[in-house]
Amino acid sequence: MIEASKSGKISSTIKYGMVGGGEGAFIGDIHRRAIGLDGKALLTAGCFSRDLANTLASGEALHLERERLYETYQEMAVEEGKRNDGIDFVSIVTPNNTHFQIAKIFLENGINVVCDKPLTTSTDEAEQLEKLAAAKDLLFCVTYTYTGYPAVKQAREMIKRGKIGDIRFVNAEYPQEWLSEPIEKNPDNKQAVWRTDPNQSGISNCVGDIGSHVENLVSYVTGLEIESLCARLDKIVEGRVLDDNATIMVNYKGGTTGIYWSSQIAAGHDNDLSIRVYGSKGSLSWRQEDPNYLKVSYLDKPSQILSRGRDSFYPRPTEICRTPAGHPEGYFEAFGTIYTTFIGALAKNKAGEELSDADLDFPTPKEGASGVKFIEKCVESSEKGAIWIKI
Ligand SMILES: NC(=O)c1ccc[n+]([C@@H]2O[C@H](COP(=O)([O-])OP(=O)(O)OC[C@H]3O[C@@H](n4cnc5c(N)ncnc54)[C@H](O)[C@@H]3O)[C@@H](O)[C@H]2O)c1
User: Fold this and answer.
1) Is residue 2 in a domain?
2) Among 227, 281, 294, 333, whose Cα sits 20 to 30 Å from the Cα of 33?
3) Distance CA 99, CA 115 (A)
């Protein structure tokens, strides 16, 4: 799908490929639809599954040419890297344990990368990717989705401008209920199977899958850096080898503190990510299931609910709004904004233009590596009896 963007420019010159996201997968299809929202890149190649039949069926449904469908991601990286009309970037939407090898081979073949979170299953691997992308002068984006919401960017900017004063405490949580029962015992539930398997998920399930979003969202909105943490990771559903519930206290550099809770056994919660930041002059609060609104409270005046599209937002969160107030924007748009920003940066890079801070407003391997380190430190703290661990 190619359509006019807000700026009036049409860009169909950026081509992308995808690894993972074949028929039956979850997030790959969301990525494709999100990219399609602004029509700034075309899906051109794919290795959508380990199973060639799935890749071929998925590729045909997506109207790709047969010669751009690959049996392995290794072949795709090499062949696309050689072509004059090869893909500009690859989108990696496979289980966690595969991200490192896939991202590495695409970078080695000169192809820019978008990879879903958590970036890798070890900090060392994440840092290797960060270095490799820099050495090859390639752009790399990690899809921490929730940083793509206008209200989140507004909250970040308000905190930067001191609207709620000095931050005193952060309370953030991500409760879900979907793993309340041992649904991973059904092999057809692929998303549950791999997330609860340490060989595919890494050393953590709950913190890796959703606690990592909490860590990134807080870091993006507040700019705070974690100095130490104390985590208790629970394995609540019988037989589970990885965590499905986690309570984490954090100390930030500079003395502020916070608490994070992530859970997959929280009956009644779908995807209830929220962040509350308390400052010396007021507080900010945002909830992913009601993402068009930002609550702001001041000590000396009544609370306000800022409405995306209606109330005055700063320029960056304003420019990424797609619909008027009251026509809700959500998950697709947040993903779409991350992609559109990344693709815009790629297009400018290709044209040899300078990149501004706004051009680079997408999560990078640096944040990806922080996320992986956070996961490792939470597991270490919990295994040692929920002790304080320096980051
Ligand atoms: N950013 C977000 O909000 C968000 C949301 C959900 C999932 N994720 C992340 O996305 C990734 C995928 O999660 P999912 O739920 O979509 O998983 P999934 O199991 O639904 O899909 C994984 C896909 O990868 C394919 N695959 C696996 N190994 C492959 C290989 N070697 N070559 C080609 N294809 C391969 C599978 O066949 C499948 O199509 C995970 O890292 C997860 O953490 C991120």
Assistant:
1) no
2) 294
3) 7
**Nearest of 70, 19, 23 to residue 190 by alpha carbon:** 23
Enter the pTM of the model: 0.95
Nearest ligand 1 atom, CA 331: 3
Q: Does the structure show a pLDDT above 50 at 233?
A: yes
Does 4 have pLDDT greater than 50? Answer: no
Nearest-angstrom CA–CA distance, 275 and 173: 7
- Name the closest-CA residue to atom 5, ligand 1: 27
> How many other CB atoms are there within 10 angstroms of residue 232's CB atom?
15
Q: How many domains does the chain have?
A: 2
**Tens of pLDDT, residues 336-365:** 999 999 999 999 999 999 999 999 999 999
The stretch 176-189 carries a mean pLDDT of 97
Whether residues 312 and 353 fall in one domain = no
Quick one: 311 and 357 in the same domain? no
Residues 205 and 315 in one domain: yes
Whether 155 and 190 share a structural domain: yes
Residue-wise DSSP of 342-376: HHHHHHHHHTTPPP-TTTT-S--HHHHHHHHHHHH
Q: Domain limits at 104?
A: 14-146+337-363
Q: Which residues line ligand 1 (CB under 6 A)?
A: 19-22, 25-28, 47-50, 73, 93-96, 98, 116-117, 143, 145, 190-191, 194, 209
Orientation of helix 123-136 relative to helix 99-108, angle to 10°:
20
